UniProtKB/TrEMBL annotation:
Gene3D superfamilies (alphabetical): FAD/NAD(P)-binding domain
Domain of life: Bacteria
Taxon lineage: Bacteria, Bacillati, Actinomycetota, Actinomycetes, Micrococcales
Pfam families attached to this UniProt entry: Pyr_redox_3
InterPro entries reported in the protein's UniProt record: FAD-bind_Monooxygenase_sf, FAD/NAD-bd_sf
Protein name: NAD(P)/FAD-dependent oxidoreductase
Transmembrane domains' residue ranges: none
C-alpha cells in the first residue's frame, strides 16, 4: 500500500495548480491521480469543431506561468491542452502523475486520521485529499423517449467521434449553450444542420484578434508588457461582474449590446424573435460569438425553436410536433454540474459527500466541507464565475489549501471544519445571491441546484471579493484560535 502526504485527484488546471503550489512550498510527498491517459481536463476531453476558450487567453493561465505564445485573444482548445502539458514539463510534475488511474473510492479513517483510497491501480493512504475533479466532466444525457433507438452516429459534444465523417450529413444538434454556439457554425460549413433550441441565449460580440509572430516575440521579450496586458484583462473581467449580477445600468447596457448584435446579424424578424431571450441578462451564461447568428441567418442552419421531445429511429420529433429525418445526433446538452459524480465515492465521518450534499453542495470557503477532515475541493461549490477566468479562483483556493496545511503542520491533528462555519458561509452565499439574475431572472440555469433552489455553482461576487473572503479565513473555521494578525470581518 502506498502512503503519501497529499493525494490530488484530477490533472486539469485545478489539479496541476495544486501540484505546482505543493512543489513550490517544498511539499514533495504527493501524487496526482488522473483517470485518463493524459493531462488537460476539460481541454483534453472537449475536441469538438471550433472548441476555444471564451475568456481572454492571457487571463486563462497561471499567474506565474505566463504564455507569450497564445495565437490570439481567445485560445483554441488544443493550445490550452498543450499549455497544461508544458506545465507538467517545466514544473517537473511527471514523476508525480499517475495517469490511467481512477479513484474508485475514498474513506476517512478516524482512528488513524488518514484517507484510504481505492484506485484502479491499487490502494493508498494520504494525510490530505484534494479533489480537483472539475465540475464539467460528466456529460448530461437528456432523458428523451426513444433516444436509444437512433440508428446513426450519436455522441455528446465532449465525447466527439472524430472517426465519423459528418460532411454532407443531416445533423440534429440538441442545445444552444456555449458548446453549440461554437460547433454549429463549423458543422454548417459542410453539413445540413437542424438546431434544437429549448431556450435562446444572450450572445454578445466576441471580437478579439490573432497575435502575429512579432506580437508573440514582443510578449516573450518584454514580460512586463505581458503582465500589463494581463492586469488590464483582469480589470475588464471584474468590470463585467456588474452586468452579469444584475446592476441595473450595467445590465441594461449589456442587454442593448446583445440585442444590437442580434439585429445586425439576423435581418429576418421572425428568426430574430425566436432568438431573443425572454429572461434577464446574466440569468444564464452569457455567450460570445461572431459567427453563430450569421450561420442561422444564412439558411445553412435550420432553427427548431423547441426542445427535442422524442426519437423514433432516424426521425427526431420536436416539442412543436415537427418531425425531422436526420443522419446524426450531436448532444450539446451540458454536464452534471450540480450533482458531482465523485461525491458518491467519498465517505467521511458520517456518510458520503453525496449524502452531505443531498440538497445541494455546501462548503466553507468554497473549499472545505464539514464531516470530511483534511479534504479540500477545488473548482467545486460556489467556485465558478460568470464573468471572468476560473483559473483566478483556482489560484485563490490553492493558496487557501496551502495555508490550511500549514495550520495542520503547526497545530497537529486533523482539520475538521466546524459545521457552524460551513452553515454561516452557505448563508453568506445565499444572501449575496438572493437578488441576482441567477436567482430572480426567470430562467433555468446550471448554477442553481433544483433540489434546494440554492445557488451552488457560482461565486456571487468578484474575484477580488473571493480573495478578500478567503483572506479572512484565519483557522477558526477548524476550531483553532485565530492566527495573530489575520484579517477579520464579515462578508
Amino acid at each position: 500500500m502506498t502512503r503519501v502526504e497529499v493525494v490530488i485527484v484530477g490533472a486539469g488546471f485545478a489539479g496541476l495548480g495544486m501540484a505546482m503550489a505543493l512543489r513550490r512550498a517544498g511539499r514533495d510527498d504527493f501524487v496526482v491521480l488522473e483517470r485518463a491517459a493524459s493531462v488537460g481536463g476539460t481541454w483534453r476531453d472537449n475536441t469538438y469543431p471550433g472548441v476555444a476558450c471564451d475568456v481572454p487567453s492571457h487571463l486563462y493561465g497561471f499567474a506565474d506561468r505566463p504564455n507569450p505564445d497564445w495565437s490570439g485573444t481567445y485560445a483554441h482548445g488544443d493550445e490550452i491542452r498543450t499549455y497544461l502539458e508544458r506545465i507538467v514539463e517545466t514544473d517537473d510534475l511527471g514523476s508525480r502523475l499517475r495517469l490511467g488511474t481512477a479513484m474508485l473510492g475514498a474513506e476517512w479513517d478516524a482512528a488513524a486520521e488518514l484517507w484510504h483510497l481505492e484506485t484502479s491501480s491499487g490502494t493508498m493512504t494520504a494525510d490530505a485529499l484534494v479533489l480537483a475533479c472539475g465540475r464539467l466532466t460528466e456529460p448530461a444525457i437528456p432523458d428523451i423517449p426513444g433516444l436509444e433507438t437512433f440508428p446513426g452516429p450519436m455522441f455528446h459534444s465532449s465525447r466527439w467521434d472524430h472517426d465519423t465523417d459528418l460532411a454532407g450529413a443531416r445533423i440534429a444538434v440538441i442545445g444552444t449553450g456555449a458548446s453549440a454556439v461554437q460547433l454549429v457554425p463549423e458543422l454548417a460549413r459542410t453539413a445540413d444542420v437542424t438546431l434544437f433550441q429549448r431556450t435562446p441565449a444572450w450572445i454578445v460580440p466576441r471580437g478579439g484578434e490573432a497575435y502575429s509572430a512579432a506580437d508573440r516575440r514582443r510578449f516573450a521579450d518584454h514580460p512586463d508588457e505581458l503582465a500589463r496586458l494581463r492586469s488590464a484583462l483582469y480589470v475588464e473581467g471584474e468590470a463585467r461582474f456588474a452586468s452579469r449580477s444584475g446592476d441595473a445600468a450595467a445590465s441594461r447596457d449589456a442587454q442593448a449590446t446583445a440585442l444590437a448584435h442580434l439585429e445586425s446579424q439576423v435581418p429576418d424578424p421572425a428568426l430574430r424573435a425566436a432568438l431573443t431571450p425572454d429572461y434577464a441578462f446574466g440569468c444564464k451564461r452569457v455567450l460570445l460569438s461572431d459567427d453563430f447568428y450569421p450561420a442561422l441567418a444564412s439558411g445553412s442552419v435550420a432553427l427548431e425553436a423547441s426542445a427535442l421531445a422524442a426519437v423514433e429511429g432516424s426521425t427526431v420529433v420536436a416539442a412543436s410536433g415537427t418531425r425531422y429525418e436526420v443522419d446524426a445526433l450531436v448532444l450539446a446538452t451540458g454536464f452534471a454540474s450540480t450533482r458531482q459524480p465523485y461525491a458518491q465515492l467519498v465517505r467521511g465521518e458520517s456518510g458520503t459527500l453525496a449524502d452531505h450534499w443531498s440538497t445541494g453542495m455546501t462548503s466553507f470557503a468554497s473549499t472545505a466541507v464539514s464531516g470530511f477532515p483534511n479534504l479540500f475541493i477545488l473548482d467545486g461549490p460556489n467556485a465558478a464565475l460568470g464573468h471572468s477566468s476560473s483559473v483566478l479562483m483556482i489560484e485563490e483556493q490553492v493558496a487557501y489549501v496551502q495555508r490550511c496545511l500549514e495550520h495542520r503542520d503547526r497545530l497537529g491533528g486533523a482539520l475538521r471544519v466546524d459545521p457552524a462555519a460551513e452553515a454561516a458561509y452557505t448563508d453568506e452565499i445565499a444572501a449575496a445571491a438572493a437578488s441576482t439574475p441567477w436567482m430572480t431572472g426567470g430562467c433555468r440555469n446550471w448554477y442553481v441546484d433544483e433540489r434546494s433552489g440554492r445557488l451552488t455553482l457560482l461565486w456571487p461576487g468578484t474575484v477580488d471579493a473571493f480573495r478578500e473572503r478567503l483572506a479572512r479565513a484565519d483557522g477558526s473555521e477548524f476550531g483553532f484560535a485565530p492566527v495573530p494578525g489575520a484579517r477579520r470581518g464579515t462578508a
